[in-house]
Amino acid sequence: MQIAHMNPRVPIIQGGMGVRVSMSGLAAAVANAGGVGIISGTGIPIEELRTHIRKARELTNGLGYIGVNVLFAMNNFAETIKAAMEEKVDFIISGAGFSRDMYGWGKEYGVPVISIVSSAKLAKLAEKLGASAVVVEGFEAGGHLGTDRPLFDILPEVVEAVNIPVIAAGGILYGGDIAKAIQMGAVGVQMGSRFVASVECDAHPSFKQYYLDCKEGDTVLVKTTVGLQGRAIKNNFTEAISGENKLKIDKCYDCLKHCSYRFCTLDSLIKSVDGDVENGLIFAGARVDEINEILPVQVIIDKIMEEYKRC
Questions:
Q1: Model pTM score
Q2: Three-state DSSP class for 92?
Q3: pLDDT, tens digit, 9 for 90 and up, residues 4-27
């Protein structure tokens, strides 16, 4: 898998999961295991992001590939991306909206920019604007979604449409999924949910356990205040915000460019990652019910690559 200057040993990028689910601990572990790690820069102070980038560099001895993911909908999107670029991350990745400016910043700082897309049309636009690669994310993904179509329906259209590397994402769990994606023209995959159930994931143990306890049919689509559908595990919180229900906002962080104020997405994500798993959002992919154990990142990647080699 060759993307810009990056040529990792295994064709796996770890998804950037916020708030505080994928920080320096998880990103560094994935990079040390031969993949590409991503720190989520969404919903955290910029100085905290800088600290985690530096910590990840220390944990990888400066040898692994570390990128930063930032949600386009955040008010401090530009400041966060520029701070990450100043720290000389290996790449920036962004989704849940589209920024033309970030490609120019990437050229200015010499940092590759990767866009998360859900259609061939958006992939072509990203390439035209200067993206080094695109992640095509299907309906099976966790978190904010940009499509109602399955990954393997969209993937061939995107591969056909662009000449830059394409990474497949959404519902990727096993080596066979990677083999299928690569056979269809992807250079590799992005995986988020599987790495939540890892020893090194930065989330609270209760958050990880919720993944293990999840059964088939336990995920639901909720409309977040960003304005997009998001896939999450059913709990008291998803029930409380079902339909057009509103929840009182105790403290507004003024974090989004545009917010419906139906509830606080940021606060709900912070609650869950800190361990209050019934009263916050727990984003997860559609196949989370197939994850049944917490393992070290190295073991997860080794198992997946053994499966891949058998395909």
A1: 0.96
A2: strand
A3: 999 999 999 999 999 999 999 999
